[in-house]
Amino acid sequence: MAAGPALKSEMFAVDWVSVASTNVAAIAYSIDFQRLWVRFHNGSVYAFLAVPESVYQGYLSAPSKGRYHHYHVKDQFGYLRVS
User: Distance from CA of residue 14 to its chain's centroid?
Assistant: First the structure.
């Protein structure tokens, strides 16, 4: 499924938080849509769908962002590649 203009607009409206990781550059969360946003160092951005806020909070506090992503986000939620 391709990302439409509304999703891309949302990507610019969320508050991104830079994280210390070799793979993940920043994350954001849209409370209204329960979307977890992840920007990787290679420039790609993904919107993960129907993600509880607790997963976002866990991501923020995880000592290893990459490990958290692998075990708690990847393959756990539907997603769209936005860019």
Answer: 11
SS3 state at 35: strand
Q: Quick one: average pLDDT of 56-69? A: 97
The number of distinct structural domains making up the chain is 1
Say if pTM beats, i.e. exceeds, 0.85.
Answer: yes
Q: In whole angstroms, what is the distance from residue 27 CA to residue 47 CA?
A: 10
Structural domain harbouring 62: 5-81
Residue 1's pLDDT is 53
CA distance 9 to 39: 15
Give the Cα separation of 71 and 51 in Å (integer): 14
3-state helix, strand, coil in the chain (%, to 5): 35, 25, 40
